[in-house]
Design a protein that fits this description.
Layout lengths: L1 H20 L21 H10 L1 H4 L5 E7 L2 E6 L6 E3 L12 H5 L10 E3 L6 E5 L5 E5 L2 E2 L17 E3 L2 E5 L28
Parallel strand pairs: 1-4
Antiparallel strand pairs: 1-2, 3-9, 5-6, 6-7, 8-9
């Protein structure tokens, strides 16, 4: 009888540990769009997702600014990482959760986000389903692409994943739907979506 109780308590402890380890502040699970395919998570994606939430985990406010790219002037974070909008989002509510938020981590903040060279009236926040605070610009929730490994990469431009298209964002807050210039690097015009 004692073995059965010990085994039951041990299994419950393992279940609690596993459920606690499987969630994070920016990728809490909620059901992804059922019509979207499920991506394969790679170690690079996981590390990119972890680094994208650095502003939230260190207790600092996010920064949104502009940068030059082969697509023209686009929005980036304080470190120069490209920011995207998701066409499936309507209004300020994000529809990208669970597996989607692992591939397209939200730009989160723990305070009022800062802007540099942009109209501060376009920068705001919205509550996510995991209780984190996501930065919005001109009413669009902002995201990173986990396959962008360094500042300035735009590998997520015009990728179709999780039921709709993803675009870099112009300083006016609109989707940049143009293609990269012919002189852009191959990674800047990738359309693969990494199989999503």
């Amino acid at each position: 009888m004692n073995r059965v109780i010990t085994l039951a308590v041990g299994m419950a402890a393992v279940a609690v540990c596993v459920s606690g380890c499987s969630s994070s502040s920016t990728t809490s699970s909620s059901t992804p769009n059922p019509s979207a395919s499920t991506p394969t998570t790679t170690a690079g994606s996981a590390s990119a997702a972890a680094s994208s939430s650095a502003s939230a985990s260190t207790g600092s406010a996010a920064t949104v600014k502009t940068a030059s790219s082969p697509l023209g002037q686009i929005l980036v974070d304080g470190s120069g990482r490209t920011l995207y909008l998701f066409k499936a989002d309507t209004g300020t509510t994000s529809t990208c959760n669970g597996a989607c938020a692992q591939a397209w981590p939200p730009l989160t903040t723990t305070g009022t986000p800062h802007s540099s060279g942009l109209s501060s009236s376009l920068v705001a926040t919205t509550a996510r389903s995991d209780n984190s605070t996501q930065v919005t610009f001109n009413g669009h929730p902002l995201y990173y692409f986990a396959e962008d490994k360094k500042p300035g990469e735009t590998n997520g431009q015009d990728v179709s994943a999780f039921g709709n298209s993803w675009y870099v964002v112009s300083p006016s807050g609109d989707a940049v739907t143009s293609e990269a210039s012919a002189s852009a690097s191959p990674s800047a015009s990738s359309k693969s979506g990494n199989g999503y």
